[in-house]
Design a protein that fits this description.
The protein is α/β, with parallel strands linked by helices. It folds into two domains: 105 residues, no CATH class; 183 residues, no CATH class.
């Protein structure tokens, strides 16, 4: 079993928790950087090629540009360090989780206002920085949030999801039942959170960094169906195990009567805002599956 397979298996999170209990942050980071080096060295792996393709588009570089070598290393190193912080926080308990995340007052205010107004909010984001720690922090705060996660739960996802549930996060893999729960929650003025930057064969073709990509639109459907607003939020690394949750303005759904086009327009509007966050910190965008597979085939890869 190679290093990538171990990380993605049920064994990966268990090892992460063990190291989180025994290593200092500095030791954990050294371990994370060593693991990142092993991953990066396998340049022909699906993970490295996927990161390289995504970074090529975001940074506006050819797939074979030497500048992408460091970009790939940065992404994988940031991912490894983010997981080191996540497992260390989980192993240390709620106090460390809460002290690891700064939630901007604007985000806190949106949550409070939503509860007071009894009007739902769909919080959407990208896989930026250590988003796992933010999920734990939100769970500990007891906010009425339902997090919609990837439908196909396997390998390390089983253990990671169990850890999230342990910290009070209402995590539901996407299904007919969980979407029905999300509709009811939003109509009751609650909050639903999901990431929208993972490639989705069942999604719609949207423009992302100037290229077409199949991406989720379920968040837009939920907002329009329940007359909920959308909030784009993101996690950014502050250094030394500290992360900040930031957000933009609330987006009002526009219902013209053409449901399909309304969904596409809303999803596209949100995606443009997501681009700005990713573009400002491309090394913290932790998506490993290729969003645009053609980038690799254009250069004879894959």
């Amino acid at each position: 079993m190679d290093i990538i397979s171990i990380i993605n298996s049920r064994l990966g999170p268990m090892l992460g928790l063990l190291l989180g209990r025994t290593l200092s942050r500095e030791q954990a980071y050294r371990m994370a950087d060593w693991i990142a080096g092993l991953v990066v060295a396998r340049s022909e792996s699906w993970l490295v090629q996927g990161v390289r393709a995504n970074q090529a588009v975001v940074r506006g570089l050819p797939y074979d540009s030497p500048l992408l070598n460091q970009a790939v290393r940065d992404v994988i190193s940031n991912a490894a360090r983010g997981y080191a912080d996540w497992y260390r926080a989980v192993a240390s308990g709620p106090e460390v989780v809460n002290s690891s995340v700064i939630i901007d007052e604007s985000l806190e205010q949106v949550v409070k206002q939503s509860i007071e107004d009894k009007r739902g909010v769909v919080i959407v984001g990208a896989h930026m920085s250590s988003f796992n720690i933010l999920l734990l922090a939100l769970g500990l705060r007891g906010y009425p949030i339902q997090a919609l996660s990837y439908a196909r739960v396997q390998g390390s996802y089983h253990v990671d999801n169990a850890l999230r549930l342990k910290f009070g996060l209402n995590l539901t893999p996407i299904s007919f039942q969980s979407l029905r729960q999300a509709v009811l929650r939003l109509r009751d003025g609650g909050l639903v959170m999901t990431a929208i930057d993972r490639p989705d064969v069942g999604g719609e073709s949207l423009t992302f960094f100037g290229r077409q990509a199949k991406l989720p639109v379920g968040h837009a459907r939920l907002a329009l169906r329940t007359n909920s607003r959308i909030l784009v939020g993101m996690v950014q690394a502050e250094g030394d195990g500290l992360y900040r949750a930031v957000c933009g303005s609330l987006i009002e759904p526009e219902d013209t009567g053409d449901q399909h086009q309304d969904v596409l327009r809303l999803a596209q509007r949100v995606l443009y805002l997501i681009e700005d966050y990713i573009r400002s910190r491309p090394g913290e965008w932790l998506i490993f599956l290729p969003i645009w597979p053609s980038v690799m085939t254009e250069h004879g890869e894959g």
